[in-house]
Amino acid sequence: MTASAPAVRPSGHAARRRLTRSAMYAIAIGVVLVVIVPVLYAVLGGFRTTGQISVNPVGLPRPWVFDNYREILASDTFWRQVGNSMLVSAITMAVVVPCASLAAFALARFEFAGREAVYALFTIGLLFPLTVAVLPLFISLRTVDLLNNPFGVALPQAAFALPTSIIVLRPFFRGIPAELEEAAAIDGCGSFRFFYKIALPLSRPVLATVSVLVIVTSWNAFLLPLVVLNDPDMWTLPLGVTNFSTQYSSDTARVLAFTSLSMVPALVFYVIAERQIVSGLASGALKG
Amino acid sequence: MPQAADTGHHTNGPAAVPAQRERPPGATGPPPTSRSGAVRPAARTGSGRVGAAWRKRVTIAAFLVPALALYVLLTLVPILQGAYYSAFDWNGLEPLDQFVGLQNYRDALADPVFLAALRHVLVILVLSLVLQLPFALGLAVLLNQRMRGRSLLRLLFFLPYVLSDVITAIVWRLLLQPAGLVDDTLDSMGFGGLSQLWLADPDIVLYTVFVVVSWKYFGFHMILYLAGLQQIPTELEEAAALDGASRAQAFRYVTLPLLGPTIRISVFLSIIGSLQLFDLVWVMTNGGPVGASHTTVTYMLERGFERSQFGYGSAVAVIAFLISFAFALTYQRVVLRRDVAGALTAMGAR
Known about the structure:
heterodimer; A: mainly alpha; MetI-like fold; B: 67% helix; globular
């Protein structure tokens, strides 16, 4: 297959090259197996019965059982949790993206005393994990009656997503040519109009990246929902899955079916937005 | 240059987290192209009249206030509140009147369970640096070669990172149950004797947690390294090869040093991540058996919420926070210093 290039070289070289190649593929396939087997185990396990799984943990469903998936898909609980997760993610995004873009724009394009200090204030936020603030947040949210409320999860999440978002957005706003703003100003376009009519549309790709990162983080979040949402009707998917897995701990197949179904949104999202997620994380991390 | 960097260094104190780097050599994001200079808002052009200056101030405030309000109210204030609560003996409900000073801190630092939790975090942190990151780097180098199915491999290797910690924990808990898939696979390969009570043996559980953490996170570090590697022109390694360097030598003396900034960031993120480990452990082991897999955060949550010791829990949170904050600052000053020199110089010139 790959013989055409090495054929020119002396045969010893070619043989060694082929050996390295094979080793490379062997390693790659090994890692793929380690990554993919747990996921397949979960998905296929959902199509088996717990009896089948305990007799033989490895193996295909025989016969295929659809009841686990069917029952979960027919239950209100699952869909309510999907809905709650979507609601929390949507609110978080609707709060972070406008706030972060406004702030990042000001920090990128206005000159004022203390600008870098404000930026630094946001960037040290990267070092404030939610874990440190979760007890006091619980107390405050209880005081303002936001426990068991999607906003009680979404607003703190939005606050903690600000630093990364601002760090990703600011260089982008800085990159917009000054001439563009000058030209707009001559046409009577104020700062806010320039921001809204020109800067934002130009930044669509980076805004997409920020939104995707915020949604994925919110969708997977566990600690804050665990603390804030006690009412089972308000639970997001990660809480629901955890609870389901303890409630039906003896019924492995059902747990696997529920877990697999809760993976689906994240997987679909990943396949669609892979580029944004990967580039966003890489640039966010390398810039941050 | 170094002098300028030093000045910035001293004047900026804690502000100088690595996040200051705007455009490091390894950055992959869309490159901001034109002049980086900020432009004064249009209002300013109407010469230095008082009204114009005020209008400018109002504009800036309007842009900044939403984010600042959110950030101050829901990030900074709670952290300060936590520090305040930590000086009280408080169950979260009664009036906050039992001031105990530093007693909660003394109790925490004398509690063997908490000290063990700190040790567990340290074990996972060190193992991650010694095993997980080199593994991720190796895979990144592999994927940086020309090979078939490269983008599919990248997609698959990164997949676990996208699954939530909760899903990872539940699936692995089932895989690792006695006579589950892991034991069965070992059996069929003739290593049945190696089977363990992966999650129930206090001597083993921490290493099991480490393996699952690595399963989930290696893809993230691999992506970072891959982004870094792609910034290195292939001509450099080719030139080294022409000079008679073996591939290993070229990697060691050309690629690795150039990858330095990426590796330092990856190490930083890995350490911060280990210090904050929570979801996965909470769902997979709940800190057990008998506290053998507690992390600082699972310990904090158990004391704070399950035993309603809000004052004590806050003290634990503050200790955990101080550890990661002190680490981050030190690391930034000592290790990342070269990488942020540019950003700091710019800040010094403000």
